[in-house]
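Researcher: Let's do a round of design. I'm pasting the structure tokens now; please hold your answer until I've finished.
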């Protein structure tokens, strides 16, 4: 993806669509993070590079990410109900499929995190990120605050949705469910309700504009520290 132009075969194009569909499904389904799946498929860094600098990376990144985006829309809007059916009828095998996929990739991702060496700061990053994620999700699980669905709460939903892609391990469904916003937000998207889509889209867009460049710069200048933090967020999935 780095300034190399190559043509995908039809099979590769279809496979990228399939990967994008899984990422889209991961963004919708409770307990799964679309960002985590994008890391597993090796798509996370190119997406972040494109989002952080869209004009400079347009020609090199967009052609290879188009099938991913197509699949993401299909997975997010189209097949989510189908997979939700399997999760409802066969919850254990369905969830174990995702967990096994993530757990199986952890060793290779850990090796990739050490490509440029590891420092004490890398392991501190790993520990701090793990503690933060478990504390955040643990706090949400015991909180009893319910937020009334409205324009501003859907802005927040869009923020959480974008955050789940930009910061893998942060499942937006896990963040929204304790607040009572997950069901109305997903139902609104599924029914193409513009009173939900517009504020949600605004929240997601603002989040991407504000955070994508900073996160991409973090990977460029503090590769090991950032990747170890990312690896810690992946540990939350199989646990």
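Researcher: That's everything. Go ahead.
Model: Designed sequence:
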């Amino acid at each position: 993806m780095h300034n190399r132009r190559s043509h995908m075969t039809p099979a590769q194009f279809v496979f990228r669509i399939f990967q994008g569909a899984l990422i889209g499904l991961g963004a919708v389904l409770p307990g799964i993070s679309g960002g985590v799946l994008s890391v597993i498929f090796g798509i996370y860094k190119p997406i972040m590079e494109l989002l952080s600098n869209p004009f400079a990376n347009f020609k090199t990144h967009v052609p290879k990410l188009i099938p991913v985006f197509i699949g993401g829309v299909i997975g997010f809007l189209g097949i989510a109900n189908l997979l939700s059916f399997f999760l409802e009828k066969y919850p254990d095998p369905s969830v174990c499929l995702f967990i096994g996929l993530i757990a199986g990739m952890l060793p290779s991702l850990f090796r990739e995190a050490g490509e440029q060496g590891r420092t004490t700061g890398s392991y501190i990053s790993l520990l701090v990120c793990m503690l933060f994620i478990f504390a955040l999700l643990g706090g949400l699980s015991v909180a009893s605050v319910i937020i009334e669905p409205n324009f501003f709460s859907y802005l927040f939903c869009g923020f959480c949705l974008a955050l789940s892609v930009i910061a893998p391990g942060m499942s937006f469904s896990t963040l929204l469910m304790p607040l009572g916003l997950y069901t109305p937000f997903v139902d609104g998207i599924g029914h193409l309700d513009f009173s939900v889509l517009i504020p949600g889209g605004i929240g997601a867009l603002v989040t991407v504009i504000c955070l994508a460049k900073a996160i991409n710069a973090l990977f460029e200048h503090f590769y090991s520290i950032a990747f170890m933090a990312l690896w810690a967020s992946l540990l939350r999935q199989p646990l």
